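Researcher: I'm preparing a figure for a lab meeting and need a structural model of a single chain. I don't have an experimental structure, so a prediction will have to do for now. The sequence is pasted below. Please return the structure as tokens so I can convert it later.
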Amino acid sequence: MDQVLLTLKNLTEQRDALLCQEDCPNTWDKFRCKCYRISTEWLSWNESREFCVSQGADLLVVDNKEEMDFISKATLYHDFWLGATDEAGEGMWRWVDGTVLSLDNPSWSRGGPVGGEDQNCLLRVSDPNQFKWADESCEEQNRGVCEQNVLK
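Model: Understood. Here is the structure written out token by token.
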């Protein structure tokens, strides 16, 4: 079974590599089949999302550890907005694509969100030697990371 899963994973990666031959626009970085842009402006979470949408993208939805590692290396010394919030319902975290963000995800700093009703937006924070997620006031000013899919 493990061999079948590994073969499937390899075939999926090969297929995606063939499907995403497109380059990213200037000022965007490519990783696998997505383009990323780190904003240079310090904006609220909602303003950051509006900026991304105006670029034909959205705030970053973290799909896997490799993607988070790529982004973290590109933004080594900065905290930045990610595309998740619990504004629609306290404690019900969702990514901007509608998928659920698990509260027991190991990426949470302090083991999970702790801010209550006044901290409803997801921020990637740089703790010493590691990158974690924290809930933060959506009105705080931070950079955001936009993500755009380049699959044909």
